[in-house]
Amino acid sequence: MNVATATGPAYACLAIPGAHGLAALQARLVDRIKRAAIRQLHASAGGERLLLRLYLDGEEASLQILQGRLTAQQPDWVTRQVRQHLAEEQVHTELFAAALGKRVGTAVAPQGLSRRKLARWRRLSERYAPQFDAGPLVPAYATALCAEQMAMRILRRHCDTIGTQHALYPLFFRVLGDEERHVRLCAHTLQRLVAPHETTHLARLLAEIRSVDAAFGISGAVAMHAAGVLHRALAIVRPGPR
After folding, report:
1. Could you say which DSSP state residue 24 is in?
2. CA gap 232, 79 in Å, rounded
3. Residue 134 and residue 123: Cα distance in Å, rounded?
4. pTM of the model
5. Does domain 33-237 match CATH 1.20.910?
6. Long-range contacts of 155-158 (CB under 8 A, 24+ apart)
7. CA dihedral 170, 176, 177, 178 (to 10 degrees)
8. All residues at 6 or more sequence positions from 196 whose CB lies less than 8 Å from its CB, including other chains
9. 206 in Cβ contact with 14 (< 8 Å)
């Protein structure tokens, strides 16, 4: 069977799964905390710089992941897709860097959680690569799919929280549109790379990747909210230009 045209229920695992029970409760809790954190961070110049720094670091991490997908063994069509994806993520990096550069001061984004998450995703990729005829390309794109779905969720929440009148809304909304397209691209690529008889392994891989993301959900949300409160307090004690 030509996997380039394979679609249907076997690939349903590519979609964002619905949350139920305790997982649904955790998702609602994380969403509420992060919305409050966004409002806190935007309330101070330092908090806003931190937000932009977080987005910039995320885009730079995406560039590293994408560059790691460029190999001599992959099909030409994959190489073309990766190069296009790289170019768009580079634009995002430049946009966030420009927005950050317009704001006085510095912001150091906490990287501990992100680094641990990326390390666990890397170990999953190494473990699952032998399960697929396309080798490490499949876990690489599976990780990219989940990362893009996560970015899409974060940006949708951010746009919804700050509203269309906020000065940074056009930036976040533009990047959101690209991330939505990247999600579709990654899903389509996995449909081409993964044969129908390999979809069980794909479903397990995606479930494990998503469980890693969920494991850092509450701790990341609390850290983000605490940073917002701290920056707002500092703005009161040491007021300065926005």
Report:
1. H
2. 45
3. 18
4. 0.81
5. yes
6. 155/179, 157/31, 157/34, 157/35, 157/38, 158/38
7. 110
8. 1, 3, 6, 10
9. yes
Distances (CA, A) of 106 to 46, 101, 171, 224, 232: 8, 9, 20, 17, 15
User: How many residues are present in the chain?
Assistant: 242
Spatial distance between the Cα atoms of 129 and 134, rounded to a whole number of angstroms? 8
Q: What is the pLDDT of residues 195-239, one digit of tens each?
A: 999 999 999 999 999 888 776 654 454 455 444 444 444 444 455
Distances (CA, A) of 235 to 45, 50, 146: 8, 13, 36
At 69, the amino acid letter reads: R
CA distance 122 to 116: 10
Please report the pLDDT score of residue 4 as a whole number.
36
Residue 59, sorted as left (phi over 0), alpha (psi -120 to 50) or beta, turns out to be alpha
- Return the closest-CA partner of residue 8 out of 139, 137, 194: 194
Q: Is 44 helix (H, G, I), strand (E, B) or coil?
A: coil
pLDDT for 66 equals 76
Using CA atoms, how far apart are residues 124 and 209, in angstroms rounded to an integer? 7
**Average pLDDT over every residue of 75-103:** 89
* pLDDT at residue number 51: 86
Helix pair 199-215, 112-128: axis angle to 10 deg: 160
Do residues 141 and 190 lie in contact, with contact meaning Cβ atoms separated by under 8 Å? yes
Which sequence spans correspond to the domains of the chain? Answer: 33-237
Q: In angstroms, rounded to a whole number, what is the distance separating the alpha carbons of residues 24 and 64?
A: 32
Which helix (H) or strand (E) covers residue 95, if one does?
Answer: helix 76-101
What dihedral angle (degrees, nearest 10) is formed by the CA atoms of 63, 69, 74, 76?
-10
C-alpha to C-alpha distance for 181 and 149, rounded to whole angstroms: 10
